[in-house]
């Protein structure tokens, strides 16, 4: 069944006089994993919460699993799974109790114990959630998001605060959901997360889509350009080029086989992303990557 899971046209939402979402278009096919990337305040959560039916839009056309989330009923809700940014509090209940309770909300849930095992929490099934580490707590959130066997899963910044090991384990879990055919829309600040997980990335800044495409090809032309630097006549020289190999070979003809101080630098995905979204107010690692590349 190839159908569009999400179709959004000209979506807007204002808070007071300010646009949080200023005309977003978004398409997600069935079975696709799409990452919405963007800095703090870009409008990602507002957009996703409108798609989940938790916020009202001001204008625009929104279809999620064929329905308008602003009007859809319980049957529609049973088809979506949601992992919010900040979680509900059932701190005194154990992992197993929470997953079982959530399973009761759905007409055709997965087996709670299988879900607990799938997210790697089998050893913690009897643990109260307030005793779980941040990473394990997030796995429980995912378990609650998938126990209803959703066709479409929303993950809002699922790995914020994870250490690298927990992040990789989480990525593996998403890979399993992908293999099972789940459609996933996730928001993230992490470019490497979009690259690891998503078929397509949609970059949002100031309430608008500023780029869309396969994560590795974001910014496309800019991503293929390279900077060639070398030393000649006691000075550093630099050119920006689409054809660095030809440039280097021309230099070699002119300067001899060993070109003094030769460097060929391609922009990292971080560089391309930062160029798209503007100043990196909230993207510390991006600033580092830029410094390292320059
Ligand atoms: N309930 C609200 N009332 C007023 N303004 C809001 C509300 N929710 C969000 N905003 C504002 O709307 C803009 C977009 O916020 P949103 O949370 O959608 O961005 P985001 O991209 O998800 O950011 P983050 O990565 O920090 O979660 C921000 O300027 C935010 O301050």
Automatic annotation (TrEMBL):
Pfam families: ABC_tran (PF00005). SUPFAM superfamilies: P-loop containing nucleoside triphosphate hydrolases. It is found in: Cell membrane. InterPro entries: AAA+_ATPase, ABC_transporter-like_ATP-bd, ABC_transporter_ATP-binding, P-loop_NTPase. Gene3D superfamilies: P-loop containing nucleotide triphosphate hydrolases. Residues 6-231 form the ABC transporter domain. One of its GO terms (molecular function) is ATP binding. Coiled coil: none annotated. One of its GO terms (cellular component) is plasma membrane. It comes from the Bacteria. GO terms for biological process: response to antibiotic. Belongs to the ABC transporter superfamily. PANTHER family: ABC TRANSPORTER ATP-BINDING PROTEIN, ABC TRANSPORTER ATP-BINDING PROTEIN NATA. This is ABC transporter related. The lineage of its organism: Bacteria, Bacillati, Actinomycetota, Actinomycetes, Micrococcales.
